[in-house]
Amino acid sequence: MDFIGRNSITNLRNIAKNKVLVFTQSGIYNIFGNIINNELQHTDITFFEKITENPKREEIKTAQDNFKETSFDFIIAFGGGSVIDFAKAFRFYDKRLTPLIAIPTTAGTGSQATQFAVVYIDGKKTSLDDPKILPEFVIADSQFVENAPKYLKACSAIDAYCQAIESFWSVKATDESKKYALRAIEICRDYIVDAVNTNNPKANEMMVKAAHLAGKAINISRTTAAHALSYKITSKYGIPHGHAVALSIIGLFEINIVTLNERTDLIKVLKISENNFRSYFTNLMKSIGLEPDIKNLGIQNLDEIVESVNIERLKNNPKPLSKTDLLYILHNDAGFV
């Protein structure tokens, strides 16, 4: 069940009862913990805050060991994508399938709406994919994203935008996922700049909705080559995930758009011509403070990025891509050609 919109957190008191385990991070708790405590003032709450960015198997094991003798009526994931992935992974390994309530504090990953989670095992990125870890409840309240740092908001927002675009052209896309994706694209088109630059409450609320819709879309269709290219950029160069994904979306758009039977639907919702996407998306990134030129980010070894790509995600791209294609996409976005 989904509750989307400002002040939707008030639904929490009607869902979470008795004994509750809350996964979060200390920085998030320090800012918003009073809201959760107020909503659950008649509930037995245990907080677990030892969660770092990019969940690690050993951290999840620590949580398992801490709570293996304790039963909870609900688990709450209160945070960004890493916290929600942590909670989903905990449930995956724990096997007790305690009902999960996801409360995102960023408008980007859409992790609250997906059945997969990223876990790092011995430093290697691993993806869990199981319908059993999809949260039963989502409370996406825009008040939690309103005062986030601008760069974080920009990275999160562009991630939602790219996910929606990738979902639409994905080989695994369905009529349902395309409906979610097109609506998410439409919202991002209209509200992303105001949400990042002016902190407009309406824009923030709409971007929370867009991120959730994009999450629902990729839960069906999965992502494509832009995400596959992003992981090495993030892990080696420290470029946040959303920013890293956006670095290849222009080149991919130009390659993929000519293969799509329904490309007019995508062009129509973007309100641009096929030939204008490069200038549109480049200007959009600049307008929200994201560097669109990969070479200006200090990324030099593009061959290493290409070699790291998950081939399975490339199979989901509408046009088969070779390593030469991937290099062209990265070079092309970087302004090298």
Calculate the terminal CA-CA distance, rounded to whole Å: 48 Å
Q: How many beta-strand elements?
A: 8
Q: Low-confidence runs (pLDDT<50, min 5 residues)? A: 333-337
Name the helicity range: 40-55%
State which percent range the strand residues make up.
5-15%
Principal-axis shape: globular
Listing every helix as H and every strand as E from the N terminus to the C terminus, the arrangement reads EHEHEHEHEEEEHHHHHHHHHH
**Given the structure, what is the number of helices?**
14
Query: Helix/strand/pairing class, anyone?
Result: alpha/beta
Strand order of the largest sheet: 1-8-5-4-2-3
Mean pLDDT: 91
Largest sheet: 6 strands, parallel
Our Rg estimate from Cα atoms comes to 19 Å
